[in-house]
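Service request form, structural biology core

Requester: graduate student, group of Dr. S.
Request type: structure prediction, single chain
Budget code: on file
Notes: please return the result as structure tokens.

Sequence provided:
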Amino acid sequence: MRIARFITCVLVLCGTTWHVAAQNNKEKAKEVGNKALKLEQEGKTDEALSLLKEAQKLDPENYIYPYEIANCYREKKDYKSALKSMEQVMTHKDIGPDAYQMQGNLYDLSGDSVSAINSYADGLYYFPNAGNLYLELGNLYYIR
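Core staff response, request fulfilled:
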């Protein structure tokens, strides 16, 4: 009986420790991510990019970090790297129309207007009331 209680206590403590460690990593990631956003706003894109990659390692489940990494690459006009980062974002279950807008904008900036249109259209399929996607799509058709 005592052994069963001991094993139960050890398992509960291990589970609690793992949960706390995961929570601490998420909190650290948020702190690092906030520093990165401030640097990004100050135009220090390379420093922000480094911190965002660190935050992503700490909290790989959060799609905000690869989204902001893509934004940094966009600022650097490295659209190929930005689109690669957006691939991670697009597989996440909690994304919104802004992810489709970013992806479409990146395709458009890289000269692939067909993929941009497809990205906006995909976003409208999931978010039919997303005005930002209608705006981007309309702008792209207007320019073409």
